[in-house]
Design brief:
Length: 243
């Protein structure tokens, strides 16, 4: 039997993440800057007959730019979950992919996905695969930038994960405000969803995922490649319908 190789490309706000799967097995993964397709083009030569699948928050690259054809994620296409979101046309593809990945990793179990990137998103899917939505909130850097941009004297800070919870300077007060704010929000969301789904699994992904993994009070499942896993799950599902 021929190997079925999926190439997955997730074009986000600040980076391009990519992976190669054989079935559900992750063979290779990495990250590039937008417009630098060198690593992806090397993968296309390394693996034969790659089925490329792309999700993007930006305008998609041209086939001529990449050097190979690809399929794209559409919210109105076949999916392994049922969308109960009222405005699916506005649904971020990374959010959709993440819950598909969660449902694949923990089938028949309700899951809350926390994707900590430019924004922090909270998305819930029940054990039957119904995706309802969740919440979108400013991310860590966005909060720091907003305090500087909308005030006259507060500086633009680089993020630091400080110990304790009391800020003893303006800088540390800003950092603690962001830290305690995002953690308090996340813990509150987890508590609310756990009330509704007592056997809830909480998965954390995104660039700031390690910070949440370290500091959240509930046991969580760290899934740095969750969006890539979800995109591969969608691609496998689509291929199964055409088998």
């Amino acid at each position: 039997m021929d190997r079925r190789i999926n190439g997955i490309i997730d074009i986000g706000n600040t980076a391009v993440k990519w992976a190669v799967f054989e079935g559900n097995e992750l063979l290779k993964s990495g990250k590039s800057s937008f417009g630098d397709w060198t690593a992806i083009q090397k993968l296309n030569k390394e693996f034969e007959n790659v089925n490329w699948f792309v999700s993007s928050v930006h305008a998609l690259p041209e086939v001529s730019e990449l050097g190979f054809s690809f399929q794209t994620l559409e919210t109105d296409g076949p999916l392994p979950v049922t969308i109960r979101y009222k405005t699916p046309s506005t649904l971020g593809r990374d959010r959709l992919a993440a819950v598909c990945g969660a449902h694949h990793l923990f089938p028949n179990t309700p899951s809350l996905v926390i994707d900590a990137g430019t924004c922090i998103t909270f998305d819930v899917i029940d054990g039957a695969g119904n995706y309802f939505g969740g919440a979108i909130s400013p991310g860590i850097f966005m909060r720091l930038k907003a305090m500087h941009q909308f005030t006259g004297k507060l500086p633009q800070l680089e993020w630091e994960d400080l110990d304790g919870f009391i800020g003893d300077s303006t800088k540390n007060s800003m950092l603690q405000g962001v830290k305690q704010g995002v953690l308090g929000e996340a813990n509150h969301q987890i508590d609310r969803y756990t009330e509704k789904y007592p056997n809830l699994r909480v998965l954390v992904t995104g660039g700031d995922g390690p910070f949440f993994e370290k500091n959240l009070k509930k046991d969580i499942f760290a899934a740095p490649n969750l969006v890539l896993i979800g995109l591969n799950t969608i691609q496998n599902y689509k291929q199964s319908l055409n088998a």
